[in-house]
């Protein structure tokens, strides 16, 4: 049986103290009153228990001497041993009122019964342990004195198997008895006494030889002890190095732990922020989806457009230049048509100016509806409006060309040429405007991404582009028609119809259709509806005016304007 470690839970001066033993010889040393005897007594008590004496003896017995200094009710300990390759745990409660002893097989995790405990101890009782294995406190003897004591102990142990009998004392006692026998002549004849003495001497000589053998073994053990002590000192030095390394490792571990805790705190903070942002995003998406705006899809498309950006702006610029160049170049081929008439400028210009200003008034009412959808809608609408300007400029350019050339030819009395110019400007205005609008629609994600990376703003912008900018060519209808009428000296009628179509009609739309279906999409549809209404009304007015002219001048020729 090998003791691996002991735990003084509460024993004497020790409280919750653990001592681990190495295989082989272990030396427990320390100053006086350090607790060496307490540890020695604890081991014997763990094996065989400590009983409380009765009467006066109880005041100075072992039980009372080693009763815990703190919390004496808890008087217990544990000891782990190894026997035949198996680990066992001894648990003993020394308290006289709660005495208990348990042996646990740690390999199997079960408690041994009494018979198994007896087999484990193999007949070792307290008396045998005390007289063989255990060596009591030798006091403060050192050097030669300690050597003699140990030799005497060894001799006693080898000869008598007990430390209770002192060999020297035995020899002294035998010699005294021999002298007494000789002096009193109580043992028979002289020969008998001599024979007894010789036998006794032989026994003594044999005991001396055995003692010498044991002393030699002790000397050998001492040399081994010195070797072990040197190894222990070497291990102590290595332990000091390991302790220093462990200290550095512990400090590093502490720093890493603090860093990890800080990172975890930052992660938690970021996670909470992300959760809040996600919640806000979800709420915003729900609000936008309730208005028919697929924000998630829009954002993905915008991001893909940014990642796949090409030279589309250059292509767009070239298309714009080509469109404008074609519209202007067509009429530059006829320079004789560039002769302007200066009569009726105010009559024509004032209604035309009013017509242009009307758009600003109508946009105020529409903008109020856009504002009701929030800041993202305002930004998205402004974003898409930029592309509407690009497309509208083309239709307006053809309108300006129409008013210029129709006025010249009308002044020259060439009605057929006026009709030809009108239909050419109308066709080119619608076609070239829609060409540019189609470019914007094909690469809508890219063009939107130029102005914003916000999914919500992009969503509103795309809705306006698809419902307004995509049909921007319809603006050429009322613009070219109004220009034709102004070129023929009729500016008031188009101005009145434009007021009805862009102001009155849109206000009616806002208080009726939009109120019934209050979505951003329905609000954008007001532009297309007003264009169709205005263009149709002005076209009717233009047809009536042209019919009157044709009825009056069936030849297609009229006199110059007065």
Explain how this protein is built:
By secondary structure, the chain is α+β, with helices and mostly antiparallel strands. The chain folds into three domains: 2-133, P-loop containing nucleotide triphosphate hydrolases (Rossmann fold, 3-Layer(aba) Sandwich), CATH 3.40.50.300; 143-246; 294-334 and 345-552, no CATH class. Helix content is 69%, strand content 7%. The protein is built from 18 helices and six strands. Helix 14 packs parallel to helix 18. Residues 161-165, 305-328, 330-349 and 555-562 have low confidence and may be disordered.
Short overview:
This protein has three domains: 2-133, P-loop containing nucleotide triphosphate hydrolases (Rossmann fold), CATH 3.40.50.300; 143-246; 294-334 and 345-552, no CATH class.
Tell me the number of structural domains.
3
Low-confidence stretches: 161-165, 305-328, 330-349, 555-562
Percent strand: 5-15%
> Which term fits the overall shape?
rod-shaped
Count of helices?
Answer: 18
| Largest β sheet strand count, sense and barrel closure | 6 strands, antiparallel
Q: Separation of termini? A: 138 Å
Cross-sheet strand order for the largest sheet: 2-1-3-4-5-6
Rg, rounded, reads: 59 Å
Q: What is the residue-averaged pLDDT?
A: 76
- Count all strands and give the number: 6
Helix percent reads: 55-70%
Structural class: alpha+beta
């Amino acid at each position: 049986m090998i003791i691996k470690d002991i735990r003084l839970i509460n024993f004497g001066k020790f409280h919750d103290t653990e001592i681990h033993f190495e295989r082989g010889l272990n030396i427990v040393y320390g100053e006086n009153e350090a607790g060496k005897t307490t540890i020695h007594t604890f081991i014997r008590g763990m094996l065989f228990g400590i009983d409380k004496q009765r009467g006066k003896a109880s005041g100075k017995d072992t039980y009372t001497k080693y009763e815990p200094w703190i919390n004496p009710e808890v008087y217990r300990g544990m000891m782990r041993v190894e026997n035949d390759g198996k680990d066992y745990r001894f648990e003993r409660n020394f308290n006289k009122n709660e005495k208990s002893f348990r042996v646990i097989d740690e390999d199997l995790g079960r408690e041994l019964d009494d018979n198994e405990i007896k087999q484990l101890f193999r007949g070792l009782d307290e008396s045998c342990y005390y007289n063989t294995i255990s060596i009591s406190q030798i006091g403060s003897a050192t050097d030669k004195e300690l050597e003699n004591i140990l030799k005497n102990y060894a001799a006693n142990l080898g000869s008598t198997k007990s430390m209770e009998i002192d060999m020297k004392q035995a020899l002294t006692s035998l010699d005294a008895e021999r002298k007494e026998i000789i002096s009193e002549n109580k043992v028979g004849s002289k020969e008998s006494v001599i024979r007894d003495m010789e036998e006794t001497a032989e026994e003594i000589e044999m005991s001396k030889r055995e003692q010498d053998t044991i002393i030699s073994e002790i000397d050998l053990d001492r040399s081994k002890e010195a070797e072990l002590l040197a190894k222990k000192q070497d291990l102590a030095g290595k332990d000091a190095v390991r302790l220093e390394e462990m200290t550095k490792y512990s400090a590093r571990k502490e720093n890493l732990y603090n860093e990890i805790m800080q990172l975890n705190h930052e992660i938690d903070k970021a996670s909470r922020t992300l959760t809040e942002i996600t919640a806000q995003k979800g709420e915003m998406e729900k609000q936008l989806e309730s208005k028919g705006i697929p924000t998630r899809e829009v954002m993905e498309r915008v991001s893909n457009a940014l990642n796949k950006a090409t030279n589309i702006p250059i292509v767009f610029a070239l298309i714009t230049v080509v469109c404008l160049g074609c519209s202007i170049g067509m009429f530059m081929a006829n320079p004789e048509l560039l002769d302007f008439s200066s009569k009726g400028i105010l009559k024509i210009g004032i209604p035309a100016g009013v017509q242009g200003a009307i758009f600003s008034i109508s946009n105020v009412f529409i903008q109020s509806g856009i504002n009701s959808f929030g800041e993202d809608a305002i930004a998205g609408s402004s974003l898409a409006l930029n592309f509407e300007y690009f497309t509208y400029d083309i239709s307006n350019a053809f309108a300006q060309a129409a008013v210029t050339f129709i006025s010249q030819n009308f002044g020259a009395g060439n009605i057929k040429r006026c009709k030809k110019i009108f239909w050419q400007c109308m066709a080119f205005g619608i076609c070239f405007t829609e060409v540019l609008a189609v470019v914007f629609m094909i690469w809508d994600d890219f063009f939107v991404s130029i102005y914003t990376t916000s999914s919500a703003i992009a969503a509103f912008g795309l809705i306006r582009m698809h419902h307004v900018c995509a049909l921007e060519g319809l603006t050429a209808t009322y613009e070219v028609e109004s220009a034709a009428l102004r070129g023929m000296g009729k500016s008031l009628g188009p101005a009145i119809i434009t007021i009805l179509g862009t102001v009155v009609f849109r206000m009616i739309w806002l208080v009726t259709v939009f109120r019934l279906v209050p979505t951003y999409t329905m609000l954008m549809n007001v532009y297309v509806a007003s264009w169709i209404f205005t263009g149709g009304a002005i076209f009717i007015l233009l047809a009536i005016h042209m019919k009157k002219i044709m009825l009056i001048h069936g030849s297609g020729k009229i006199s110059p304007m007065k």
